[in-house]
Automatic annotation (TrEMBL), chains A, B:
Alphabetized UniProt keyword annotations: DNA-binding, Transcription, Transcription regulation
SMART domains noted in UniProt: HTH_LACI
PANTHER family: LACI-RELATED TRANSCRIPTIONAL REPRESSOR (PTHR30146), LACTOSE OPERON REPRESSOR (PTHR30146:SF153)
Pfam families, per database record: LacI (PF00356), Peripla_BP_3 (PF13377)
Domain HTH lacI-type: 8-62
Organism per entry: Phytoactinopolyspora halotolerans
Membrane-spanning intervals of the chain: none
Gene3D superfamilies: 3.40.50.2300, lambda repressor-like DNA-binding domains
Cited InterPro entries: HTH_LacI, LacI/GalR-like_sensor, Lambda_DNA-bd_dom_sf, Peripla_BP_I
CDD domains (alphabetical): HTH_LacI (cd01392), PBP1_LacI_sugar_binding-like (cd06267)
Name of the protein this chain belongs to: LacI family transcriptional regulator
Amino acid sequence: MTEVRGPVTVRDVARSAGVSIATVSRVVNGHYGVSSRTVEQVRAAIEELGYESSLVATSLRRNRTNVFGLVTHSFESYTAEVLKGVMEALSGTGLDLIVYANSDTYGTRSHGWEQRNLTRLSGTLTDGCIVVTPWTEVKSRTPVVAIDPVRDSTMPSVAADNLAGAVTAVNHLLTLGHRRIGFIGGRSSLAAAWAREEGYRAALADAGLTVDPTLIGRGDFHPETAIAPARTLLDSDDRPTAIFTASDGMALKVLEVAGDLGLDVPGDLSVVGFDNIPESALAQPALTTIDQSMHQLGYEAARLLQELVAGSAEQPLQRFVPTELVVRDSTAPPGR
Amino acid sequence: MTEVRGPVTVRDVARSAGVSIATVSRVVNGHYGVSSRTVEQVRAAIEELGYESSLVATSLRRNRTNVFGLVTHSFESYTAEVLKGVMEALSGTGLDLIVYANSDTYGTRSHGWEQRNLTRLSGTLTDGCIVVTPWTEVKSRTPVVAIDPVRDSTMPSVAADNLAGAVTAVNHLLTLGHRRIGFIGGRSSLAAAWAREEGYRAALADAGLTVDPTLIGRGDFHPETAIAPARTLLDSDDRPTAIFTASDGMALKVLEVAGDLGLDVPGDLSVVGFDNIPESALAQPALTTIDQSMHQLGYEAARLLQELVAGSAEQPLQRFVPTELVVRDSTAPPGR
DNA sequence: CTGAAAGCGCTTACAG
DNA sequence: CTGAAAGCGCTTACAG
């Protein structure tokens, strides 16, 4: 690595090429009205000095930056999937991506992290932002797309078709013959949690079953929060023969609790998760779940954001991506 | 989402609070010498307007930004691990992280992507950068740490102890009784590829075995590039009883090729990878490999970068993280 | 304790 | 075809 004295600026290039900084800028941006001779000189100087225009200065000056921002609460394996999807959508568009992570709020549950990070970026750096699983509504002068929005949110968003996915999950259990099916929900302020519970209720209702409130527990999507409700559900005399859980992380904990209580899965208890995180396939037994493609969520979010920035977005601005049932080893017909 | 007219700037806050923009700046940055009454007023105005200072403007003006950059070629599951490690190291330091991904070079193998992205960031946005697996030496006015540097690179870097890891891998095969052990290497310009091959050679030499050049194939770390050398190795009359591969991605392809040729793993052929990517555990058979903690690589890179920025870094600037042998189902004593 | 002014590196009307 | 100047949103000496 060579330490250069200072940043190479337009000024350095201008001096070296014997022109004004305005001309350098024109060449860099490929504007018309520069003699080919001058273009040559400037290009040579740029090459020689290794000049690259400052993202910051350009952003500050221009209204348009051709950079999208993405704000995330933490980095998980699914975040990488989202990012891959985003980059796939951006590929060939000339749009770059900046992911911003704030170390103070990282991994904590502090209120307002989305808004803070968003405001810092959207000040001038980005043309628009994607925010992954915001916990609140968010405001910005540039377009924002939420992946997994807050419940009742009116902001543009992309989410899995959680309702249909949950119905599919419960129908899978019903088809296997289960009738007492428990549910452990997620953070109720999020649309995903709400829709997954609605799907559970709807599937039971469709099957002519009444929903037993004692069969419904509540976590907040963090795996540990599933432990207490799982215990309550499984310690009962009339315990369910199956549990549908609003996330794989929580479902994995249900598996643990079942193990602690000496219950065999799927012999004594069937478990279905939601998300299809990589760990699900590794679980003992491998978890039956609903796959939501984080890759596709990222892809669609980037597409929607492009439309929004271009002003060409059409209703609906709340978009859904299909889910898919993945049957593995944690589900079977009920009991003995 | 509420669309705000324009960005809320210092000017807006100043007007609302009835002070100058200089005073607003002082309050925002907690500088001394502002009367508590003024501080109150300014704070109230900030609160009311939802002001957040522009990252871009601040970066441009200041020498120090308290933001680290990370430049990556693509987003993979291991990238998320690296990012988690980085954020863990940054947690509580007040340092934020910006990840920059360029859509033009994303996923392609275009030359110079590291340098371009790095230069755009380090112009003024970041105090220093981490670059993940650069393919060339890189220069910058601010400190740079490479995760998995180029071979013979003198830049500050963090890498797994690839040499020791490779020795461990080969010793594992030797202990099982293998004597004809093949090797498929990676992109030879990278230090990791070189060290893994050196380890292979060293372990064989230590065991008193001469290295057979026909047993060495070469890929470039991209999984598909392992197919041809694997075929060559396994089609031979005197084929090896085991293959050590410089990456899991390539090892997984070796498994496929073996399957195509009707060879049983580990019955007819043992395979050892390197990296321990999540997919390795899922392979059939599950892959024996050398674990390099990407999380720890990210963590150490962020620590080293902090030292570099603070000017307190001590030699050596090339740091190594230990590896660990993970024995799974793809290795066994040789044949029949 | 506070403000006016310079300047970070750019781009873009405005002149010529 | 080219340059001088204004200004993007900030921070920081410099005055007062």
